[in-house]
UniProtKB/TrEMBL annotation:
Source species: Candidatus Giovannonibacteria bacterium GW2011_GWA2_44_26
Sections of the chain in a coiled coil: none
Protein's recorded name: PD-(D/E)XK endonuclease-like domain-containing protein
Pfam families linked to this entry: PDDEXK_1
InterPro entries: PDDEXK-like_dom_sf, PDDEXK_AddAB-type, Restrct_endonuc-II-like
Top-level taxon of the source organism: Bacteria
SUPFAM superfamilies: Restriction endonuclease-like
Positions of the PD-(D/E)XK endonuclease-like domain: 3-250
Length: 391
């Protein structure tokens, strides 16, 4: 399979979005946040791309403003002028701060926006390629490099999260592939948070890189199964507000399609109304609720909907319930290899609850390794109802 870090990330966040974007290739307008991020990244590249004559701060700010206004102007959804200005001011603030703290002549930048490919071989010997773009690579000493990834987000991750950042581990592997003679311990990985002018750096051990490889291959394997079974469940989260496919998503589209009501829809609305009345007023009417559930569920299945809404915006969701269990042979291998036989003895009577307690005491790398050994043991669908209106 040929894929990218961002595709894997999209799949992990929401398989349904992955299907729209990567499999069906449905073109979608870019969000203001995405356009803004690209313009700021463009300015960062511009700062370092003019060696030996570096651009002045005014030139960089001008370059950014022009790019940002041009992207905002081309947006299919007209952005309010005030919003365009707020973003422009925010971008300029980040660039000024960055330029002041990082005069470009102080760095030995060897590449910017560098395309890379990482080759991964699975247990069947099948090759998979992960492609991506590294924002910046600096030479920081003899045989020493720093990979820098710019972030425009507000949230600062913890050091532990930065140490385990999957994207940065892939960048490390990409650099090693490009310059195989490099000492892996001499590659520094830095996330640069432009809003706060904060850099969080980390390195990677051989074991951490092995774990990254395993996690990437495992995600690829899950994607392959999803493609084979055409199974891409939507995962409703805060990210839905930024998803360009919301209006066609099975978890949301019913909310947007009220005007196309037909006989079935009217029946559904009546079923939903009654469902919520009974649910709210009289818990004794469980039998009727069960009948309505069957009617609503069959409507949802017949119409391939993940959620259905009544006129107030109350909704019923179809939720896939999954139960996982650990592959204890693999867990034993991992703990034994880490010299933790005692911990293995403690869970000899294989028990998920005991393992969960021990997991909290392990290093992040071991935790990821063990988590990746979960096996799906059971799954079923239930309906859940909410009287918290989305309108
Ligand atoms: S709207 Fe939400 S659930 Fe639907 S595809 Fe987008 S992210 Fe997934």
């Amino acid at each position: 399979m040929r894929t990218s870090y961002s595709a894997l990330n999209t799949f992990k966040q929401c398989p349904q979005r992955f299907k729209f974007q990567i499999i069906d290739k449905i073109k979608a307008p870019r969000s203001p946040e995405a356009m803004f991020g690209s313009s700021v990244h463009g300015a960062m590249k511009f700062i370092f791309s003019h060696d030996p004559l570096f651009p002045t701060l005014d030139e960089v700010l001008g370059h950014f403003s022009e790019n940002w206004k041009s992207s905002a102007g081309k947006s299919s959804k007209q952005l309010p002028v005030e919003l365009v200005q707020v973003y422009e001011e925010s971008g300029k603030g980040m660039i000024k701060n960055f330029y002041k703290n990082n005069p470009p002549w102080n760095f030995s930048v060897v590449d910017t926006e560098s395309h890379f490919e990482v080759l991964l071989l699975d247990e069947r010997g099948q090759a998979h390629i992960l492609a991506g773009i590294i924002d910046r690579v600096d030479k920081i000493g003899e045989g020493e490099y720093e990979i820098i990834d710019y972030k425009t987000s507000r949230r600062l991750p913890s050091q532990e999260a930065a140490d385990m950042d999957f994207q940065m581990s892939l960048y490390h592997m990409a650099l090693m592939r490009r310059w195989p003679g490099t000492n892996p311990a001499k590659i520094k990985l830095s996330l640069y948070f432009l809003k706060h002018n904060e850099k969080i750096s980390s390195t990677r051990t051989k074991e951490a890189l092995e774990t990254t490889k395993e996690v990437a291959l495992q995600t690829i394997k899950i994607i392959e199964v999803s493609v084979k079974e055409d199974n891409f469940p939507p995962v409703v989260s805060k990210l839905c507000d930024y998803c360009p496919y919301k209006q066609i998503c099975p978890a949301w589209k019913h909310l947007y399609k009220k005007e196309e009501q037909n006989f079935d829809e009217a029946q559904l609305q009546s079923a939903l109304k009654e469902y919520f009345e009974i649910k709210n007023v009289d818990s004794k009417n469980e039998d009727r609720l069960a009948e309505l559930q069957i009617a609503i569920k069959s409507y949802m299945e017949a119409n391939k909907l993940e959620r259905v809404f009544d006129e107030r915006g109350y909704y019923i969701s179809k939720k896939l319930q999954q139960r996982f269990k650990y592959d204890f042979d693999k867990v034993k291998e991992i703990l034994t290899a880490a010299g933790m036989e005692n911990e293995w003895q403690k869970i000899l009577e294989a028990d998920d609850k005991k393992l969960k307690i021990i997991l909290k005491t392990l290093s992040p790398a071991l935790r990821v390794q063990i988590e990746s050994q979960k096996i799906l043991s059971k799954e079923f669908t239930v309906l859940t109802a909410s009287t918290k209106s989305v309108k």
